[in-house]
Automatic annotation (TrEMBL):
Keywords: Carbohydrate metabolism, Glycoprotein, Golgi apparatus, Membrane, Signal-anchor, Transferase, Transmembrane, Transmembrane helix. Residues 197-469 form the Sulfotransferase domain. It is found in: Golgi apparatus membrane. InterPro entries: Gal/GlcNAc/GalNAc_ST, P-loop_NTPase, Sulfotransferase_dom, TMEM231. Pfam families: Sulfotransfer_1 (PF00685), TM231 (PF10149). It is an enzyme of class 2 (transferase). GO terms for cellular component: Golgi membrane. Its main location: Golgi. It comes from Vombatus ursinus (Common wombat). GO terms for biological process: keratan sulfate proteoglycan biosynthetic process; N-acetylglucosamine metabolic process; sulfur compound metabolic process. The keyword Acyltransferase does not apply. The chain crosses the membrane at residues 23-43, 155-179. It comes from the Eukaryota. This is Sulfotransferase.
Length: 551
């Protein structure tokens, strides 16, 4: 049977509550959490969705120590139309009489201490004749340019839920995450531990190769012997004073493991064997440079030469960066002031070990290896590329003595503040008399630990038989070190010793060596000619030092 709706009335049901009731407060809270958190997130992220993203970075720009310089001369000049010089040996060979070596100084500065260089201080001084007039200068410098852009990724999530409690938890959690982790969205850059840089500052035939090996054989040390040899060989027509800046710049680059600096002096380099005296470096005979030895092994120069010589040159920089200490031995600095920029460079942690030796013993050793030192003698004496094998006037020995006096007096009498704790004077004679104690002291100065294996090697290397063979003059072999230090007292005639004492009187006094007044005193080995250092030892409490002479 069909039904018919006779009357209907819609019914409305309304629930009412006071403004301070729990229901009203809950509804207000839910409404606020629904709309306010998205607005905060949008404000924090600068929009409801990511419209544009940008990244800014200061590039790493480094000076590559490559220079090409041309000076245009006036028509009245006697040297031609121009003067030229570059760090590229092939270019210099084609210049003939137009080649003129300038004094170049370059220093990079990190002004805001962010690890990236901001300013290059470059100075070039060109010696000119009175008849030469420069009309213009053309200068080309090379730089490396590198960008390293970290990429940050974010996940944007859209979450929907019918449950207000779920929405509340998600929104609140996201809000807290953005506020507390905003600074961690980009990958953090961890600072690498600083290297320790040690410069063994000495002169030829002063035991510096031996001291260099004391550091080279340490498993934490990357060592190179006389890297500035390449500078002197390439620019042998110049003199030591002019080459100071080029030597210093190369040393700085090597300390920072930037081996590109060698391209100016070794444009053909391909393997480790192109580097001067590379095989005496344990670091270049062990991983990562070569697998011939382990890092903990005492290496052999002969074995290293036969097994590692063909390793690529890029292994030098790779090995350098893997060690905590970088140690260089150099004999081509003749004053301390030229090293001030390295001592104040914030990218370096430089310590200087100043190794000296009795000038009379130095002379005896130099006479045994005169031919090998001929090129260096010419540069020291400024002979414009002429080699000097015979030096009857002992001019080179005199200049070496003067340099030791200059360095020692600056360091001891008027030391600059930045030299504090970074300079140590070591006498070769003290080292051979008490090797373990002196070596332990040098290791402490450099922040190294003397291992039992090194102790055994040091004992063997200093307690051999005799002074060594003539052919071993530049090699580290097992010898009687104390005998070596006294050999000059039998080998040199007294007139020559007397002449050395006259030329090096200041060095003998400052460094603490007693002169001999007769041949009898010379031959008397019971007479100790090495004076106690006493106040001549480096001190920060006194501005001057006094030296006693025993009769």
């Amino acid at each position: 049977m069909a039904l018919y709706d006779l009357y209907s009335h819609p019914a409305e049901i309304v629930y009412r509550a006071g403004l301070c009731s729990k229901a009203a407060i809950f509804l207000l809270l839910v409404t606020s959490l629904t709309y306010i958190p998205p607005l905060l997130v949008a404000f924090r992220s600068q929009g409801f969705w990511l419209k544009r993203s940008s990244y800014e970075e200061q590039p790493t720009v480094r000076y590559q120590h490559e220079v090409l310089f041309v000076a245009l001369l006036g028509p009245s000049s006697s040297s031609g139309e121009y003067l030229a010089w570059s760090t590229f040996p092939t270019f210099n060979q084609f210049q003939g009489d137009n080649l003129r070596v300038p004094l170049v100084s370059a220093r990079e500065e990190d002004k805001n201490q962010d690890g990236k260089m901001d300013v290059l201080h470059f100075r070039l001084e060109l010696p000119l004749k009175p008849t030469e007039h420069v009309l213009g200068v053309q200068l080309i410098l090379t730089f490396s340019y590198q960008l390293t852009a970290p990429c940050a990724t974010m996940a944007w999530l859209r979450i929907s839920s019918t449950g207000m409690a779920v929405l509340f938890m998600v929104q609140t959690g996201l809000l807290l995450y953005l506020y507390t982790h905003h600074n961690h969205l980009l990958p953090s850059l961890k600072e690498k531990p600083a290297h320790v840089h040690v410069l063994i500052l000495s002169s030829w035939r002063s035991g510096s190769s031996f001291v260099g090996q004391l550091f080279s054989q340490h498993p934490d040390v990357f060592y190179l012997m006389e890297p500035a040899w390449h500078v002197w060989v390439t620019l042998s027509q110049s003199n030591a004073e002019v080459l100071h800046m080029a030597v210093r710049d190369l040393v700085r680059s090597v300390f920072l493991c930037d081996m590109n600096v060698f391209s100016a002096y070794l444009p053909w380099y391909r393997t480790l064997s192109d580097l001067f005296q590379w095989a005496v470096s344990r670091a270049l005979c062990s991983p990562p440079a070569c697998s011939a030895f382990r890092r903990e092994d005492i290496t052999s120069e002969a074995a290293c030469k036969s097994r590692c010589g063909q390793q690529p040159f890029r292994a030098v920089a790779k090995a350098c960066r893997s060690y905590s200490h970088v140690v260089l031995k150099e004999v081509r600095f003749f004053n301390l002031q030229v090293l001030y920029p390295l001592l104040t460079d914030p990218s370096l942690n430089l310590h200087i070990i100043h190794l000296v030796r009795d000038p009379r013993a130095v002379l005896k050793s130099r006479e045994q290896s005169a031919k090998a030192l001929a090129r260096d003698n010419g540069i020291v004496l400024g002979t414009n590329g002429t080699w000097v094998e015979a030096d009857p006037g002992l001019r080179v020995v005199q200049e070496v003595c003067r340099s030791h006096v200059r360095i020692t007096e600056v360091a001891m009498q008027k030391p600059p503040p930045f030299l504090q704790g970074r300079y140590r004077l070591v006498r070769f004679e003290d080292l051979v008399r008490n090797p373990l104690a002196e070596i332990q002291s040098m290791y402490d100065f450099a922040g190294l630990r003397l291992t039992p294996q090194l102790e055994g090697w040091i004992y063997n290397i200093t307690h051999g038989q005799g002074p060594g063979q003539l052919k071993e003059a530049f090699k580290i072999t097992s010898r009687d070190a104390l005998n070596v230090s006294q050999a000059w007292r039998h080998a040199l005639p007294f007139p020559k010793i007397h002449r050395v004492q006259e030329l090096c009187a200041g060095a003998l006094r400052v460094l603490g060596y007693r002169p001999v007044d007769s041949e009898k005193e010379q031959k008397d080995l019971t007479l100790d000619l090495v004076l106690p250092q006493g106040r001549s030892k480096f001190s920060w409490t006194s501005s001057a030092s006094s030296y006693a002479r025993e009769k």
